[in-house]
Structures
1.
Amino acid sequence: MSGTYEYRGLRKEILPAEGKLGILLPGLGAVSSTLMAGVFLVRKGLGRPVGSLTQMSRIRLGKRNEARYPLIREFVPLADLEDLVFGSWDIMDWNAYEAALRAGVIEKERLEPVRGELEGIKALPAVFDPAFVRNLDGPNKKEYANLMEAAELVMRDIERFREETGVSRCVMCWCGSTEVYQEAPGNTIFEDLDSLERALKESSPEIPPSMVYAYAAIRSGIPFANGAPNLACDVPALTTLAIESGVPIAGKDFKTGQTLMKTIIAPGIKARLLGLEGWFSSNILGNRDGEVLDDPGSFRSKEVTKSSVLDSILRPDLYPELYGDYFHKVRIEYYPPRGDAKEGWDNIDIRGWLDAPMQIKVNFLCRDSILAAPVVLDIVLFLDLAKRAGLKGIQEWLSFYFKSPMHRADLPPVNDLFQQDEKLRNTLRILKGEMVIDHSGLDYYEQDHEEEDSSS
């Protein structure tokens, strides 16, 4: 039953992935350089894209007895890794090879076969405001009279990139630093496009650099994803502009280390109806992200997205006796010797039968950028797919990749990793006219009834 199913009229005609795809990354640090180096190494057969759904995952189609499990990249028309072209902005005046050496994520010896490709990607001057990132500075910054002019400079960079590389399409993904915490609700400059554009012209101190990039991308008709807990495009003015411009957007804050573990473990606790007394999380990391998060303002942004996932998974409103009063604390410590090798410690106090106390302890020794690189790859490839399928506005089906996923204002976010995975795969099935799969087992009973009908 291939290509014949239509779910609520949502099956889409998807334009082919013809030509080169430009990947534009504000922030040429550890994540961006690791992604670029990884793609170049995979192209040469010198590495595998482990952790990437778009490159390695299969998707089940139809009933279980049909045994149809194509690779996702063979099922939907995704851009090929050979067709990716990279561009970036950063406050440091370096190229991707220098950035990769500085990050220390991939060994120098392993970078040598792709050194030429990496050296060819030089960071463009960035839009930067030290009020939003207090622990970093650099010489490679744009000069502009106001923030609207800054956005126009970014749009000119995009147009120049298109002309020089010959790409047919672009996607932008924020891989820059975590900005100081902001709350959007009630702020009138974010409510509509006229107010936001007026604020850009007036260089409102409430507009962060990430929002300048988001505005420039959406105005240029380019899908935008936000990999940090910044506001960026998560305001009514830009979500509305994205819909009106036919641009898909997604975010926010890549789900890579400790929060990934939370969205795996918490659904298990909830599924077995175990009580939760408290969850203490501590992190140490020493890369540029850790240096930025050493500032309390930037840490607050990360703390909010890290802390927000449990309530939506556990639903204390529905199970107050189990989850109505748990204690949750998150700590992040900058520890330079650790570099990109982030370590997350979790102590989870739970209760079982007759409220007997138990504990779960997790020590996740992970590599921050190694986990983030395939996430960025999947996000940009899926956003390009969404654009070619005519999808626009917030792409909730990409919640799988984010700590604090953007969502409809009238609905709660989905943070359960397994629900997110099912939502992503069902969206792909719908786009291609395949039946939605809910793992209910009804196809088993339908098969039995079909056999009974045929025998009678």
2.
Amino acid sequence: MDDENKFLFSQKIQTMEAFAEFFQAVFAASRPEITVEIVRGKNVIGLALMTGDKILSPMVRLDTLYDKYIDGYSLWKVFCEITSAYDEYDSRNSTGIVAAVEDFELVRHRICYRFMNYEKNKELLETMPHVRWLDLAIVLYIPVAAHDGKGLYLAVDDALIEKWGIADTEALFVEAYANTPKIFPGSIRDMEDVFKQDYDNAPETGYEDNGERMYIATNTEKFYGAAVVLYDGLLESFAREIGRSLYILPTSISEMTLVADVDEANPAELRAVLKNVNFETTEEKDFLSNNVYYFDRGTGNISIV
């Protein structure tokens, strides 16, 4: 260990929060290929460590390591222990992450919700709590890390709920409905602006919108962003702003495309556009639906057209 690192690891840390922030900074400086996210529970703190090539990443609880540190364990030894756990972790064997998520208090404020197609996932849905919504299902997951449409997560299934000892699954959805907009704030942006900013060229949709704008509804990380249409007040405030009800095209799990309801809008044409987009550009794993939905700004209801 060089003199600079000796000084870094000789610091005195007084709180668990500072302990977590210290190792987040150390990994950023020494192992930049590893993204470290601090995961906060009610009474515990953990670290989620990930790189883009792993399906899941290990989550390390810090309470035991912090106790070791207080009892005389050096920061360097703690760092080596965390690094070893990461390097030895096999993404095909989720032991590292499960050890952390089995503690409900550690992850309850991280539970989120997302959409999946109901008919195509019936067998999978038999193993996890879900809520029917139109032709989709709302399911729960725990994000480990997410950025620019990519991320890692752990599905909340019946086996995990049993380990939590949770009998009331409705309470989990209450948690998720509160957590998701906080963790992944929603936005609605003009499609033209989105493509100008995020892409070199806009894809062809085959739809002429008669001068009316099309919009993209997603979240800050574009990670399971289609679920933002359920965010309290998001569609209502946008429809009020433009003075129109909305057609909703579920173009992928990452986003919904919105079209203002004007006299020229044709639901049949929109269905054809949606099917074309899903066939040409949406990967099978990202598919949601070929049905067009309608948000009525008068009632606040969403229905299949």
3.
Amino acid sequence: MISIGLDETLFIQLFFLIVVIIMAKFLFLNPIGKTIDARNEKINSLKSTADNQLQSVEDSKKAYEEQLQAVRAETSAYQIKMQDEASKEVDAIISAAKAEIAKTTESARSELNKSREEASATLKKEVSEISEMIYKTVSGNIA
């Protein structure tokens, strides 16, 4: 039969096991824990930086949209102003054209009236001459 004896080798092995665990703790577990802690700190730092940059981007976007809205409003106002000015210019051109047409029409009427009066005067003169010729012809034949 095999008997298990508790001799000093068991204590030596337990001692070495404890030494190995302590060495593993100092050589592997503590540096790994420090590395994990450092990595977690770096991740938190980067996350904080990313959050700050995201906030900055959102602020920039908001400012950009406000500027864009202001520019659109300014552009709209400028277009309305330019349309008003163009409308005024068109009205001025139309008024000038109407005045020119009225002036030309009046001038043409005046010339037409003058020509009519001259024609009337010429016709009256010719009527007078023709009547005189007719009278002379008729009276010369009678007398």
